[in-house]
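Example record

One chain of 556 residues, shown exactly as stored in the release files.
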Amino acid sequence: MKSVLLVEDLAFSRAVTVRLLQSIEPCVITEVENVEQALDALHKNADFDIIITDLSMPGVSGLEFLKIIRSGKSPAAHDMPVIVASGKLTGPIQAALEALDIQAAINKPVKKEELVEALAAIGKSVRPSRTTEEYKAVRIASLMDADDQSKSLSPGKNLDQLVTFLEASPTLATLNRKEVELIAKGARTAHYPENTFIDGEEFGDTRLPVITWGEAEMLQSAQLPDGEEVEHRVVLLEAGNLLGTFNFMSPPAGQKYPKVRTTRSTEVVILEFADEDPNSELSVIRSKVKMAIGTIMSQRINYSDKALAISLTHRLAESKLKRTAGGYVITMACLLGFYTLTMRGVVDSELKGIARAASSAIMILIFAMPLFAILRKGVIKAQALGLTFRGARVAAIDAVVMSSAFLGILIAAKALLVTYVPAYQDGTVFELSKTFARYTPAGDVDWVFYTFNICMYAVFVPVQEIIVRCGLQSLLVEFLYGSDTRRAVTAIVASNIVFAAAHSHLNLGFATVTFLGGLFFGWIFYRNRSIVGVSISHFIIGAAAMYALGLETFIK
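Predicted structure tokens for this chain:
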């Protein structure tokens, strides 16, 4: 069974293409609205058999998308078979498609016979053999100002094109071609600029507006408890949708229909059903259309009921999750305080051998038990918090590379300080930690004790990261509002204030440096969503900073 990636910003056009594809042969279709989503889909699955794409979409254009694929800048094979579906295959665009070795291009609205021919051409054609470097040299920037391809759905003066377009509309699906041709002959077009409110009175009870290109929204007014009037979007209308039934369905006297406002420049084709003879063919067609609209509205009500049930279920789950998360955060805060206090005890401890190891093991168990008790409830999944070994190898390699670069900058910074700043010239670049070093009666370093401290640090690093990254940072990202970037940045900064507090047992200067380094650890965690990578990064930088550079005493 073929797998198809369909890239099309108009839901109506996607629905038409999906229906045609499935009528030709069984296939698995992944639908996306823009190039960004398409690239995400390719990251998840780079083995699609075919890509079918529009050219004009918000953001990155279809031509740019094709160049990304052919240039080898996407996870997919650069010779991936592609079908372009566009409304205006102009000379310059066709030249660009040829330069990118696109195997097939068809006009919109898509017709079954043309799609069959395109699929057959894909099967017979030889895959592009040119190198990615050759495709990188293809210049398509001059084509980016081409006419908006989405306007291709506009029927214009082409009756056949209008009939084909109307036949694909769900509202007219019960009509035969002859009936569609009859109403198409009396149709006219109207254009509405962006952010225009549509007055339904202009259509009366005999006209039905269908969007040919553009976009509009239905708005329902509501009043807040304080009396403020607000408007909520009820539905988004795209090409192929009715702009609104308004008075066409003969609503009860006094009933108000939702406001309709264009969200971008929009064109509609207005279908005329006026005929005084109730037995005329046009009146019969009008009755059929009304029945189809009634069926669609009934289906929408049924869908709305199901959507409401799903929404309430999600809200209940979210409420349960937030209650559990609240307890989780409180537990983590308590563990953090316990960690800070016990870490001071470990630093000052004179325990040796089994006794020292046993006390450390007990401490780790105390940290672990509340966390796993909460995770056991199942409301919060360990993997969702980044407490997972999935992708550990990639995360570990990334952590080593990034941390090595960070550590190099840290060493260079200290070297500059001890070389050029008088206040620091008594020190050296590399020195043992005065806090963690112990000396024998002969004046030699007790390397066993020093190594033991490093090992203890290695044990405590993952515990600390589980608390700060898997607990605080992950939950903050989940529950903050705003864009992904804003939530991530806020979560990283907030969790690292807590992270720095965990090092206040050493000194305030070290806690400040820890905060700055913690921002790096937060980024590493956000980058890989794995406790493995951030723990490795924390150990590499933290151990080197404390035990090889002696920073905790250097920055007092």
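Notes: The first strand starts at residue 2 and ends at 7.
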